[in-house]
Amino acid sequence: MRIGAGLSTAADARAAAAEAALLAREPLIAATPTLAVLVTSPHHALHARGVLEVVREFAQPDVLVGCVAEAVVAGRREVEGEPAVVVWLAALAQPAETVHMEFLRTGPGGDLWAASSTAPAPNCICCFPTRTPSDAFAVRAPQRKAPGTPVMGGLVSGAAEPGLTGLFCEVGATVQFHVRDAVTADEDLRESLLRARVEGRPIGALLFTCNGRGTRMFDEPNHDAVIVSDLLGGVPVAGFFAAGELGPVGGKNFLHGSTASMALFVDD
Length: 268
Description:
This protein is α+β, with helices and mostly antiparallel strands. 23% of the residues lie in helices and 34% in strands.
């Protein structure tokens, strides 16, 4: 497996998309990306279609997922309050599958409907729900339809105003950690990452951190991103600030708050 990540803080949306895609493509050399994750800040929300087109042109991934989020995580940086595009590319040993899911009302309750899915039970599901009931999307449906499958991701947080939240539309060891205050959050993050390293050699990660963390919680910027990067040896990291984080605890998936959840890709 090969993984790369690229960040651009250029003000022009299409230029930022091109720069981030090219930076992410470099570590893959000649390998074809089987999975791309694209995250932009709200500054580029009105140009999201153009960003997507440029990333597809320059990265040429088999499949792509992503969203517009309040803040962007890339490498050692958490970009808050300024334009940013991050592209994360992976050439995985097995193909990844993207599935568009919709919540359908069925009497007093509801269920999730997938447009298509031909793959067997996945190793991991990374999802970025917006308008679906988060508990059903993140916890009940996946556990019923694919028991034991860890669900990682976060509720999309890019809506400063109506219409700016949106989606662009599997995998290794997982780690999830809880938070109560800045000091404890720091300790939990470090301890969880040290435990995660025994699963194998880290080669990449997707990080979903609460929008109540960052500079709202810690005295210094880039807190989570720096620690993840340092303790995992500088592997390519990308992600976003979420309005609720998805991750397993004790083999069951939960929707969390004020946490950071991470999908860790390892080389056995």
